[in-house]
Automatic annotation (TrEMBL):
<keyword id="KW-0285">Flavoprotein</keyword>
<dbReference type="InterPro" id="IPR009100">
    <property type="entry name" value="AcylCoA_DH/oxidase_NM_dom_sf"/>
</dbReference>
<feature type="domain" description="Acyl-CoA oxidase/dehydrogenase middle">
    <location>
        <begin position="130"/>
        <end position="223"/>
    </location>
</feature>
<dbReference type="Pfam" id="PF00441">
    <property type="entry name" value="Acyl-CoA_dh_1"/>
</dbReference>
<dbReference type="InterPro" id="IPR006091">
    <property type="entry name" value="Acyl-CoA_Oxase/DH_mid-dom"/>
</dbReference>
<dbReference type="InterPro" id="IPR013786">
    <property type="entry name" value="AcylCoA_DH/ox_N"/>
</dbReference>
<dbReference type="InterPro" id="IPR037069">
    <property type="entry name" value="AcylCoA_DH/ox_N_sf"/>
</dbReference>
<keyword id="KW-0274">FAD</keyword>
<dbReference type="InterPro" id="IPR009075">
    <property type="entry name" value="AcylCo_DH/oxidase_C"/>
</dbReference>
<dbReference type="GO" id="GO:0050660">
    <property type="term" value="F:flavin adenine dinucleotide binding"/>
</dbReference>
<protein>
    <submittedName>
        <fullName>Alkylation response protein AidB-like acyl-CoA dehydrogenase</fullName>
    </submittedName>
</protein>
<dbReference type="InterPro" id="IPR036250">
    <property type="entry name" value="AcylCo_DH-like_C"/>
</dbReference>
<dbReference type="InterPro" id="IPR052161">
    <property type="entry name" value="Mycobact_Acyl-CoA_DH"/>
</dbReference>
<comment type="similarity">
    <text>Belongs to the acyl-CoA dehydrogenase family.</text>
</comment>
<keyword id="KW-0560">Oxidoreductase</keyword>
<dbReference type="GO" id="GO:0016627">
    <property type="term" value="F:oxidoreductase activity, acting on the CH-CH group of donors"/>
</dbReference>
<feature type="domain" description="Acyl-CoA dehydrogenase/oxidase C-terminal">
    <location>
        <begin position="237"/>
        <end position="383"/>
    </location>
</feature>
Length: 394
């Protein structure tokens, strides 16, 4: 990755910023800085309209190859797009799971028919996806999935089981599901990766109410629900390979957009500290400075992570989730300490509410997408080559 921007890159940055100023206006102005983690229930219908607005300007799937409907942008230009999108207050993406996860997985592992069926709808912002990975007994230990599937005589697949923490399943059209297709198999063996419509008999979606009051997470129950024969990605038993390939793209260029969102939250904290006088507290000032330094460390590690060409679980990427999740949790605590008493009661004040939501949601940052303990194991074993932690026999 070229860390020195070219004239073309600078011109592209101006183009993105101008488009955002012109289009994130009118009805869409209400979406600025909304719809992110902890706020994903905000105006879902309007945010779906925004996805189609992005698509009309060619701003969805910007890193996908052109032959699959994307813009084929360089890593440098993808970084610029995500940074300027976040800087302008672009809302949380309803199409994130389709564009950032299942789409790239289908480009890598899907059949031509699957690519032709699903990729154009993701690019156009017309279909939305949920992720069916975690279960009550298989969160960080994803290989412990117990949801099972079996093939019928006509080739279709039936699915029985439960998924949990399924973001925006109630607003999604499709879900990709990892399920056990070989009876008696254990761990990462004998799994299938299936694509399933959510609007069908045999699927029930139940909201999970959170401490912040929202319910963007869901439990999804499968009781003989159907996936068509041609909606199996890869071969039976290859589900783990597809699932891991999908997760490798999770730590890509959008991380720079995430950091711009974090920078906005830090700005809100500084604004609150200046408003209520806590900016004069030496300890608070030191913590704000430390948070700013942490953001810079995060940025340069992300650029280092992206500079290797192939995005995946390289050594630089292994530390990323552990670092940002702990940093963000600490930022939430700083926000509450800055707000003081005014942060102790739920508020609709636009200067208070975002910081309260951030505090509540950031408590989960070190748990979802791999707990701190799992992340440290990955760093030790894959990054540093240390002996594997003893596993239970059997």
């Amino acid at each position: 990755m070229n860390l020195e921007p070219t004239a073309a890159d600078e011109a592209f940055r101006v183009e993105v910023a101008q488009w955002m100023r012109e289009h994130l206006s009118g009805d869409f102005a209400a979406l600025k800085f909304r719809g992110g983690p902890g706020d994903e229930e905000h105006e879902p219908a309007l945010r779906k309209r925004w996805e189609r607005e992005l698509a009309s300007g060619g701003w969805t799937c910007v890193g996908w190859p052109r032959e699959h409907g994307g813009r084929g942008l360089s890593i440098e230009q993808q970084v610029i797009f995500h940074e300027e999108y976040a800087r302008a207050g672009g809302p949380g993406r309803m199409g994130h799971i389709g564009e950032g996860l299942i789409g790239p997985a289908l480009i890598q592992f899907g059949t031509p028919a699957q690519q032709q069926r699903f990729l154009p709808e993701i690019v156009a912002g017309r279909e939305y996806w949920a992720q069916g990975y975690s279960e009550p007994g298989a969160g960080s230990d994803l290989a412990n999935v117990q949801t099972r599937c079996w093939q019928e005589a006509d080739g279709s697949w039936r699915v029985q089981g439960q998924k949990i923490w399924t973001s925006l399943a109630h607003e999604s059209d499709w879900i990709f599901v990892i399920a056990r297709c070989e009876p008696g198999s254990k761990g990462n063996k004998g799994l299938a990766f299936l694509l399933m419509p959510l609007d069908q008999p045999g699927i029930e979606i139940r909201p999970i109410r959170q401490i912040s009051g929202g319910a963007e997470f869901n439990e999804v129950y499968f009781d003989g629900a159907v996936a068509q024969a041609d909606h199996l990605v890869g071969q039976p038993g290859e589900g783990w390979k597809v699932a891991m390939g999908l997760l490798e793209v999770e730590r890509g260029v959008s991380t720079l957009g995430q950091q711009m969102h974090f920078a906005h939250e830090l700005e809100l904290i500084i604004k609150a500290a200046k408003r209520n006088g806590r900016a004069n507290d030496a300890a608070i000032r030191a913590r704000i400075a430390q948070a700013w330094c942490g953001l810079r460390v995060m940025r340069y590690n992300a650029l280092r992570m992206l500079s290797g060409g192939q995005i995946g679980l390289r050594r630089e990427a292994l530390i990323y989730k552990y670092y940002w999740s702990n940093w963000h949790r600490d930022l939430g605590e700083l926000a509450m300490d800055v707000l003081g008493a005014e942060g102790s009661v739920m508020s609709d004040d636009p200067d208070v509410r975002p910081l309260q939501q951030m505090f509540f949601f950031s408590r989960a940052d070190t748990i979802y997408a791999g707990t701190n303990e799992i992340q440290l194991n990955l760093i030790a074993e894959r990054g540093l080559g240390m002996p594997r932690e003893p596993r239970p026999a059997g």
